[in-house]
Each structure stands twice: as structure tokens, then as C-alpha cells.
Amino acid sequence: KMLYMEELYQTPQVLKKVMAFRCSRLTGKRLVFCGCGTSFYIGGQVSNICARRGIATAAADAIDVITGDFRLHGTDHVIYISRSGNSMETVLALEAAKRAGAKCFYLGCGEDSVLNRACEGSAVIPWANEENILESYSYYAQLLLACMCCGIFPSDELPLLVSQALEKAEDYFARHVQGHALTRLITLGPSFYRPQNREMMLKDGEITGLPAESWGTL
Length: 218
Fold this sequence. Notes:
This protein is 45% helix and 17% strand. With 218 residues, the chain is α/β, with parallel strands linked by helices. Helix 3 runs parallel beside helix 7 (138-149) and helix 3 packs antiparallel against helix 9.
């Protein structure tokens, strides 16, 4: 089984492969990114990015779609984000969208999945489905792919920038964290990055076993 750090350092190569992926641009009166857990955070971040470019979007937690707390319309194009494509809450949310008459699109890593078979369209990147549950690169691969499906493309320098960021993080860890008796980890950032802060909080807690939290504002 591949070690977590080995997977983490594959992120630049995985993102480069995603950047070469051809996907059709999604259209609709409103694009709704739907998922549960980590996938919901991806949807929130992409929705923020799209909103800054004047694209009508929203992010919906799958459970809110199921309960009716988030209302879908027939003019919506709903993008279901799920690494496996089999998340039960997301599958049930898909059924709710079909009842509302909305178009449905699957974005994730599961080729042979319920969502991929049930949606009218899909963008599937199976090579981004890593072995470890910490999702060292699938989070960013799916986020990048979702942006591309909305017509938002990254700079060609993205893989290099990610490599540099990983090197800086490793250096910072060695200099300021390793060997210290830490008791809590806090991720800080402005509200725009709230979904990403939440994701980092989860990973911090899973990797270190320490209490972790995220603050969107100070």
C-alpha cells in the first residue's frame, strides 16, 4: 500500500493530467454543486470561484436537497460531486433533482458507479482515486475539474506552484512543528476559503490525531 506522503507528492502530476482532460462546458440558468462531506466543501469553493466571474451558482449539501431545505428548479443544472460516485446521500439527492426536472451531471472518480450511470452527463477521472482515505490529491483534482467544466482554466504553472508549496510546507514542518508538543491545530483564512479551511481541518485531525478546528474570520 502506498504511503500517504508518496501520494501527497503525486499531486502536481495528477493535476497536470486533469488539466489535459477535455470536458464539455456546463450550462444552465443556475449551476448547483451538490455533495456530502468533503464533496460539499469542493462545491462551496467552486461556487465561490464561479460567483466571482459572474456565473450563477449555488452549493447544496446533499442532505438539504433530500429534506427539501434546498429547493431545486427545473432550470437548474446540478453537478453531483462524489469521489466514489456511490455516496448514499448524494444518490438520494439525485433522485430529488430528477423529480424537480433538473439536469444532472456527475463529477468524480468512479467510472462504474451509481451516479455515473444515472446522470445525463459526466466528467470522470479514475486516476485521481487514490489508495488512502485522506484524499491527498482527489480533493484538488475534483475542484480543478469542476472549475474547468465551468469554463475556468488554471495557469499552466499550476503543477509547478503546487510542487513549490509542498516543498515549503515540508520545510516549515521540519523547522517549526516537528518535535514540538502541539495540542491543537487551527486553520485560518478569510471567508472565501472557508470550504478549503474546513477540508484542511479534517486532514489535520486525521493525520495527526490532534484536535483541529478552522476559523473563517478573526
